Amino acid sequence: MSDSAQQAKAQKKAYDEACKRVLSERGIMAHILKACTEEFKDCDLQDIAKRYIQGEPSISRIAVEPEAISPRIESEQTEDKSGAEGTVYYDIRFHAVAPVDGRLIQLIINLEAQNDFNPGYPLLKRAVYYCGRMISSQYGTVFVKSHYEKIQKVYSIWICTMPTKKWEYNISSYQLTEKHLIGYTQAERSHYDLINIVLVCLGSKNHKQLKGILRLLNMLLLDNISSQEKQELLSKEFNVTMTPHLEKGVAAMCNLSEGIERRGERRGEKRGWNLGKQDDVLEMLKDGVPFEKIAQYTKLSLEAIADIAKQNKLI
């Protein structure tokens, strides 16, 4: 791998880590939970942030063998690994309690920041797998033997920054439901309502054109405005407490994003882009330039760039 490719890869990794740090801030997670989950939709944002989110969210990659039974009820796993199933990494994973019917229920929540909406497989199937792993990994950590009544509901929430046009600015939820084939007897919902997937799709608009959680996330993750502007909007418009952790994360995201953009612009100037040529796209892909930047410099669609990447086995 060339020095420039290594530099691009390191810069992309640092940017992704900064995004995770920002999204794992309690004030940001509170907005996401209120907008994307039934359990928190009527809760006060400050209550979600300070009372209901439990402990510190895990954003590191800690290897866990789910087959090994050990007393880790209070511990958090950010990586599940088994010989048969391979390794799964979670961007952010945390516990929360939610007020339901006058009592608090336990939830395990996974939050993912996803740039590639078409990674070569249906993204929803990956989300289903993540939920399945969060359920199965509770054996030996949340319950043992036949105490299935202790299984905790899991959420996998995906923030998709570059979806297809059809999916732009949609928030969709997927869960288990009851369907009667014969008869009308109803099971208690809490006995089967244990898996919920949410896709939050952003897009190409400016945050000023949006409302609610889409406005917040678009501004935070996509808008080309300064770190200071983002911090002021978070504080004044969304009432997010600006902690040192969040300030550093937002500043790092903005700085790294600007660096990636400048690098792409310099590369474009150096080569004198002949727009639409596959070899230009391939060189940018190999250097780790994000799809959206390639689209900006080459005027190709994201779908076309993804097709070129797939044809050349780069994704």
Overall description:
- The chain is an alpha/beta fold.
- It has helices spanning 3-23, 26-36, 45-52, 123-136, 212-221, 227-236, 244-271, 278-286, 291-298, 302-311, and strands at 53-58, 63-64, 79-82, 86-89, 92-100, 103-114, 153-160, 171-175, 195-201.
- A six-stranded mixed β-sheet has the order 1-5-6-7-9-8, with helices on both faces. A three-stranded mixed β-sheet has the order 2-3-4, covered by helices on one side.
- The protein is globular, with a radius of gyration of 21 Å.
Report the uncertain regions.
62-75, 262-276
Give the beta-strand count.
9
N-end to C-end Cα span: 16 Å
- The class by helix and strand makeup works out as alpha/beta
Number of helices: 10
What does the largest sheet look like? 6 strands, mixed
Q: Roughly what fraction of the amino acids lie in strands?
A: 15-25%
Gyration radius from CA atoms, angstroms: 21 Å
How confident overall, as mean pLDDT? Answer: 83
Q: In percent, how helical is the residue content? A: 40-55%
